[in-house]
Amino acid sequence: MNMEDLSKVKERIEKLRAELDRHNYLYYVLDSPEISDEEYDRLMRELQELEEKYPQFLTPDSPTQRVGAAPVEAFGVVEHPVPMLSLSNVFNTEELFTWHNRVLKLVGGRRFDMCCEHKLDGLAIALTYVDGKFTTGATRGDGLHGENITRNLKTIRSIPLSLPSGAPPRFEVRGEVYLPIAGFAKLNQERATEGLPLFANPRNAAAGSVRQLDPRITARRPLDMYIYALGWTEGKEMPPTHWETMEYLKTLGFKINPRNELHQTIEKVEDYYQKWLRQREGLPYEADGVVVKINQFDLQRALGDVGREPRWATAYKFPAHQATTILQEIGISVGRTGTLNPYAILEPVSVGGVTIRQAALHNEDDIRRKDIREGDTVIVQRAGDVIPEIVGPVLGKRTGNEKEFNLTEKSYDKEKGRPACPVCGGEVIKPEGEVMYYCSNAACPAQVQERLEHFVSRGAMDIRGIGESMSALLLKEGLVNDAADIYYLKDKKGQLLEIERMGEKSVTNILNAIEKSKDRPLARIIYALGIRHVGGETAELLADHFHSLKKLQNATRDELMSVPSIGPKIADSILAFFRSGRTSTSSASSKTQASNWLRRKQR
Which residue in 8, 119, 370, 601 is the catalytic one? Predict the structure, then answer.
């Protein structure tokens, strides 16, 4: 392979790492995934294959060499004495048998039992007990360090706070905190009644619940936990197998999934998987597969780990929930950075018990690659129960009346003789080297509202009480024109009280949340600004390097590119953002408020 081809391989590897790091952050830190588990697995597999083929490009910080994302420091950090690893995945019978044969070969043909357990869609947790008392509870975090959420976990009734005599002096158990489907439905119903944003799936709800700074909120949610492993132990000899250890932990009061089974052959493992694949809809919790573990601990130790995964276990994943329906039309929405985002308008269809009317299409290149057309019969999936997406068309059902999608034709303004934003009519551009089209009008109402929603979101300034509905209402009533105007609302309390269903308590809570947001760290402020290509991790890098917003605003292109992981694309985006004046506001009064708010951060 010549140098030019190697350069392209390296570029692809770096792009995959950046994308996976971003999705790790969204999934593990913000509990707000944007892609399905299957899409994430596909990206991870591609990266693994490239690193195996080109080991000269493998680095210690690759997503294939670590688990999850860094913990949120607000909870305090707990070090895991024994790393909490992730699992490899298999997706069909052939891959399962390949894994089994590989393990057989590694252990010299020695026979072994396998424990089969449901892979719950929840949050992995480690519980430490000292002298029979629950002392520390932590999330998996990056596998080596997790968040200390002990106070919150104590509110989950299935977690024993004290153990009977005879328990090891010091030990750790690991398990999955989850929200039962019935509890999830009730929680979302209550949030809808209160006008709060709904959780995307039970996993997000469980993760968000145990990571509350106020344990009283966690206590009000019907969380549960199954223990699935012994992490480590001191001062007591334990049984020689995983199955016997789980039975022993059950005697100590830990909750073990009664659907677990022990099997001697890989054929029986396959039968177990097929049984629960058929019955998954009847389970009281979300499960996305079956975990298969070698039962004998001595074999587990002999097999060891490879990178981020143990050799002695794998996850046999269930296929995504899928159904077919008619793609009636491809619509276009406008994002906070001006992106024109195509989405599918579907003939309503039930997928896994949920009625789907719209689905993600990502971008025009993706639509062309999948050859998706308006009028097609398409396969829709709720992969990982995240945002529904289109897998592809059912070509055998085409009639010839289907219409190919062209974004610039769809958004074309005949009077102006050019593509136009479907919301504001602004000029549509496509920067060189990018796949997305953009509305060039920063004052586009859709962008303004999206930027406002992003600014107040949990991962940014975290202003509780100003969500999607309230953001739209504030803009409609003319109380704000952009994010900076939020800090002028304290002088408009009377006007806020005049809004329908806005009482004294609601307004006071919003104003208190706004005041509290002024103490957010610099990285959160940078992220909240909504600069194109600047996510949470990049915002952290910028904050650590420049230490103030003023220095970032005044940074040159070379200074920006001196920051690790900041390339020309991100540097140019930051420069363009601050040159565009998007941080300014439409009124002199709110400009003053914004300046007052930013002054401390610019020092």
Answer: 119
